[in-house]
Each structure stands twice: as C-alpha cells, then as structure tokens.
Amino acid sequence: MKFVVVMVVIAVAAARPGNPYEKFDNLDVDEVLGNSKLTTSLLKCMVDDGRCTPEGTDLKNLAPGAVQNKCADCTAEQKTKAAKFMRAAKKDYTELFNKLVKIHDPNNEHTAELDEFLTQN
What we know:
Residues 1-15 form the signal peptide. This protein is mostly helical.
C-alpha cells in the first residue's frame, strides 16, 4: 500500500457526496482526539489489536481503496482533518501509530510522503 496517511484520512474526515465514505461527513476530529479511549479504540481497530465498532469496521474496510487511489476523492478539509489526527496519533499514541505505519508501509518506502503530508496539511 502506497500512502499510510490516506487510511486515516478516511477515519477522520468527511468525504465528497456520492462516495462510500460520506457516512463520516460529520465526524468531529477534535471530539475523537479529546477522548483518549475513543482514539485508542479506533487505532486498535485499525491495527487489528481490538474490537471494532460497526463504524470502525467500515473505516477499516474502506481505507484500502482510498490508499490505492491516494485519496483522490478527499477534499482539502478532509486532508486537514486527517493530518491533525495523524499528528496527534504520532505524538500521543506512538506505539499504535507505528503499528499502523508498519502494516501499510512495512519497508518504510513512504516515510517522506507521510512527513510531507503531515507538514503540508
């Protein structure tokens, strides 16, 4: 998989109408990040370390498609929300963040892309 950030973009951002991610249009990133239990649960779901809610399962199942097309359907707002979530995950949930990266970029081929995404959005 090419771009690990895209997976979490879907987890934290709204999507353009008509695509399968639109059910997450009203997801409040600040609310998720403000609840460590919720953030941990979502990240554990995404790395197969915990149970998934129906929404978490949807995110986990939909994410690979977004990764494959580098989130072509994402809006600027989605990318901003995703970067915010990823920066927090990297800083405050380092172990889970690293597992997520390892799953989707096991050879660290896209570290520069990830860093660029986090600084530009």
